[in-house]
Design a protein that fits this description.
The protein has about 325 residues and is α/β, with parallel strands linked by helices. It is built from 11 helices and 13 strands. The radius of gyration is 20 Å and the shape is globular.
């Protein structure tokens, strides 16, 4: 069953947000703004909401966010449940009347007691079962700002293979770099290794030898199909990718997200990346939101710019990335 895309959201007391309401989301949504205006926190808030569509998803959603941001969670030491704005007592994230993620100090105290080390280990080992459970919400994936490791890549790539979309990936890679022929997956006794077949080379080379840009490009394309009929979150999409490849990347993202029926929420720091997004948004299927801090009200807010407004701002030195 296809997911119902989000059109609006209200976030109350989550991390740096006191009361944020945004509406007008499209299939591809780009978030810009200066550092420390809540771009990543916004992705996490939306993620928590859509994963928690079913009651069984709340613990899993919290686990996903904590394990991504807190490295010491693997040893289960000094875990911080840092969701609630430090001057408030509860969190609410609403997208529909029946789609509410809420948590308060009482709930957190309860979670700290029941989410033991064994519980976390069980969540980690059963991630695939959660995502494939028919009672669980649609596929939801998150690409961090750092490089995607080969285990995470294999998860994305496995779904792409199941959907028989290897040719899509290889054709997209060739448009990104015409020296690339195909991506290959090799299993060893201990792990999974990705290799790339290059023109005029008899043996495939390690994906890791081609730099972060190719890794990120592959991760994004695989994750779109791994999130079919669901949601994909990408933090700092431009990381590792040369600005000359932004137009190719955005054109493929718009087409692939449409084919996979996947709604994307993406952050960036790059004005060139925003420009390439706007140039690719010819069918007006994307939306840009500029996050900034309202000094008078001392809170973070955001403004949606449509294609024409963003084009004017980019060409007339308007405020983009909070500038």
């Amino acid at each position: 069953m296809a997911n119902k895309p989000l059109t609006e959201i209200t976030i109350k007391n989550f991390k740096c947000f006191t009361d944020l309401h945004l509406e007008g989301f499209e299939r591809v949504n780009l978030i810009g703004g200066k550092n420390n205006v809540g771009k990543t926190a916004f992705l996490e808030a939306v993620e928590l909401n859509v994963i928690s569509l079913k009651p069984s998803g709340k613990a899993y959603a919290i686990y996903q966010v904590l394990t991504r941001r807190q490295r010491n969670i693997e040893e289960f030491k000094d875990i911080e449940f840092d969701f609630i704005n430090n001057i408030q007592e509860s969190v609410e994230i609403l997208t529909e009347p029946d789609n509410i993620f809420s948590i308060n100090d009482t709930t957190l105290s309860y979670l700290k007691n029941i989410l033991t080390e064994d519980h976390y280990k069980n969540l980690k080992s059963n991630t695939r079962n959660y995502s494939q459970n028919k009672y669980f919400p649609p596929r939801v994936n998150f690409i961090k700002a750092t490089i995607t490791n080969e285990f995470e890549m294999s998860e994305f790539y496995g779904v792409l293979v199941d959907l028989n979309k290897e040719s899509f990936l290889n054709e997209s890679l060739q448009s990104f770099d015409d020296n690339i022929i195909a991506l290959k997956q090799r299993f060893t006794n201990e792990n999974i290794v990705f290799k790339v077949q290059i023109k005029n080379q008899e043996r495939a080379v390690l994906l890791s030898s081609l730099g972060d840009g190719v890794n990120r490009f592959i991760a994004i394309l695989c994750a779109i199909w791994a999130s079919q009929d669901g949601f994909l979150f990408i933090d700092e999409i431009e990381n590792g990718i040369h600005y000359t490849n932004y137009p190719k990347l955005w054109n493929i993202i718009f087409q692939a997200s449409k084919d996979a029926n996947c709604q994307l929420f993406i952050t960036t720091h790059s004005k060139e990346c925003i420009q390439a997004f706007n140039d690719a948004n010819t069918a007006d299927e994307g939306a840009y939101f500029e996050f900034y801090k309202n000094l008078k009200k001392n809170k973070i807010t955001a403004q949606k710019l449509d294609n024409q407004q963003l084009n004017y701002a980019l060409s007339h030195d308007g405020r983009v990335r909070g500038e």
